[in-house]
Amino acid sequence: MTVIDWDVAVNTGVRLVRPGPQVDLSDARQAVVQLRELSTVAAGHVRDFTGMNPLEPSGPAVIVDRPGWIRANVDGFRVVLEPVLEQMGADRLNNSPAGNLTSAVGSRITGVQLGAVLSYLAGRVLGQYELFLPPDPDGHAPTGRLTLVAPNIVNTERELGVDPRDFRLWVCLHEETHRMQFTATPWLRGHVQDLMRELLLSTEMDASDLIDRLRQAGEAVADAVRGGESNLLTAFQTPEQSALMDRVTAVMSLAEGHGDYVMDAVGPDVVPSVETIRTRFQKRRETLNPLDRIMRQLLGMDLKMKQYEEGAAFVRQVVAQVGMADFNRVWTSPETLPTLEEIRAPSQWIERVVRPAAITE
């Protein structure tokens, strides 16, 4: 049974996505070359600043256009969602009022909606560490992949009116920090995947409910006048689900906040205009058109903005109090990750993780 027609998702997303900015071919090629180079430069800065060591070779980032980002993310969705949808129970879906979703027509409709969501996001994402890749049959490929969306980076630096090389390196610092988090901490990828799977399976949703959420978001892309207070996270309501959601939020807040902290802390030494970039970029984050507001509600992206802020504040305070080496104890095991309460009260994490370790050493 196929609940989501993945090929339709790709084709729809690629068809709907807006073209990138007008760039001369020579400028486009130069941007790709420079982004590859700067991702490698950034990796060295992140390694030196954080004291973390990747356990697998990284190499330069993969540079993609908007359709390339869509294709990569459909691959990631398949890795995460297909096992979950199977565990949710195909028979429950077949017996539900939404049972027609199991038909070829239903799976195509769902593919269209997912493609619409991805077409929206593909115009906004600057880069990402793709954590969930299809397995490599030869076992040689790295566990994740760093991608940078060249048209979006060029478009954003133009809109902000900032120095292109400085901005590109600044973005690379953030994304390379994410790659370092997962390549230097071998248990982290599996931990995040297990949390996501546990969270999805703990809900009262069956597969058709999950699909309905994707449909909501897809419809919002097609119809910008739709509003409402819901987002894709509102299904998590029981105490058990709220606790799981808190664990997911804490991990993502740490990862995003650490990325923001590193990009800004390394910035002054290697990105001369970092203060201008950060000020203008933050203002851009806060300025939304109506469609953006709707999509951020539906996709829970307002929560992500809060994650950046709370996570970065946690990292800043811990590093200021105990230094980078003791902060890096956070990557020791799942038990040393901060809880959501500790993200918001960093001294509690220091007392739980750093102080006892210092006493026993």
UniProtKB/TrEMBL annotation:
SUPFAM superfamilies: Metalloproteases ('zincins'), catalytic domain (SSF55486)
Highest taxon listed in the record's lineage: Bacteria
InterPro entries for this protein: CHP03883_F420-assoc (IPR022454), Zinicin_2 (IPR018766), Zinicin_2_N (IPR042271)
Keyword Iron-sulfur attributed: no
Record's keyword terms, sorted: Hydrolase, Metalloprotease, Protease
GO molecular function: metallopeptidase activity
PANTHER family: HYDROLASE, PTHR39420
NCBIfam families recorded: DUF2342_F420, putative hydrolase
The name this protein goes by in its record: Zinc-dependent metalloprotease
